[in-house]
Amino acid sequence: MKAIVQDAYGPADVLELRDVDRPSISDDEVLVEVRAAGVDPGVWILMTGRPYLMRVMGFGLRRPKVPVRGRDVAGVVAAVGARVTRFRPGQEVYGTCESGSFAEYASAPQGRLAPKPAGLSFEQAAAVPVSGMTALQSVRDCGRVRPGQRVMVIGASGGVGSFAVQIATASGARVTGVCGAAKSDLVRSLGAEDVIDYARDEIDRDGARYDVVIDTAGNRPLSLLRRALTPRGTLVIVGGGHARYPLSGGFERQLRAPLVSMFAGQRLRGLTARERAEDLEELGRLIESGAVTPVIDRAYPLAEASDAIHHLSEGHPAGKVVVTL
Ligand SMILES: NC(=O)c1ccc[n+]([C@@H]2O[C@H](COP(=O)([O-])OP(=O)(O)OC[C@H]3O[C@@H](n4cnc5c(N)ncnc54)[C@H](OP(=O)(O)O)[C@@H]3O)[C@@H](O)[C@H]2O)c1
């Protein structure tokens, strides 16, 4: 099969379109014929091997252990392992895969897939898994957003942020999005009632008024983030600005947050998103109800996957970038 493969960490030109073997599947896995694959900052991290912290976390010290890039997948079930009960060949699915989704076929554990939501194209479905699950867990689990609360989403026009704005709005919250001026209309169209242009104003412009702040961008210090929160508010640190911190990716904010939280009235949390079928199914329900619609910035053919990653790495996508097959 054709796949986007790398033999070493580095910039986008380490990626090559090559013929490789189809992935084999174990008893609990599903072989998916890939129709579209999502691109997210995790793909860039695995391509470059930066921040270096990820190498010692088991992804490969000198080169990536899995040579094919891509995690989000949408496609058609080609074969199932002996113990797979939830899927059958021919079914349209979406989710995350272990073997790399920038390829004609990908293997995924059945617990990381769900039926593709009705009405979504493969392109749209591939945009959902990593970013959508991260946003859902930020709003629902970490943020515990309730109707009527004021929620700020920093990086509101990006992959995670565009889902977080819609999910918080669907939860009944009043959302303020932080984004560049060019994305203000997009973020309002997703449900935000107010927008802060980060080039003009800082996030504490309106004082301590937010019950929940979800931070996906910019790597602002904890002290500044806390100034936008009410005295009992909740901060959810998703990520942001990792390219500026080659060793740690800025991860220390995530580590410090719960420590500071022990001495503050505010709840400060770092999110580590989990990939699970139940959350894909919940996202599917939100999508089918019309509450959430994936925003596609650009789609690239498989042979141009390195351009897709380069575009994302510039840091200003309007929603999601996808690769199509
Ligand atoms: N914790 C986890 O488990 C987890 C899971 C998934 C992702 N992440 C991390 O979350 C972060 C966001 O991911 P993503 O997929 O949403 O990235 P993305 O699609 O690249 O979006 C980033 C957004 O940040 C905005 N931005 C850039 N500079 C900003 C600033 N100074 N202030 C406010 N907004 C700014 C950009 O909007 P403009 O164009 O308007 O500038 C862009 O749309 C990444 O660091 C990623 O690694 C963490």
TrEMBL record:
CDD domains assigned: MDR1
Organism: Microtetraspora fusca
SMART domains assigned: PKS_ER
Membrane-crossing segments per the record: none
Coiled-coil annotated spans: none
InterPro entries assigned to the protein according to its UniProt record, in alphabetical order: ADH-like_N, ER, GroES-like_sf, NAD(P)-bd_dom_sf, YIM1/Zinc_Alcohol_DH_Fams
Annotated Enoyl reductase (ER) domain residues: 10-323
Residues spanning the signal sequence: none
Protein name stated in the entry: NAD(P)-dependent alcohol dehydrogenase
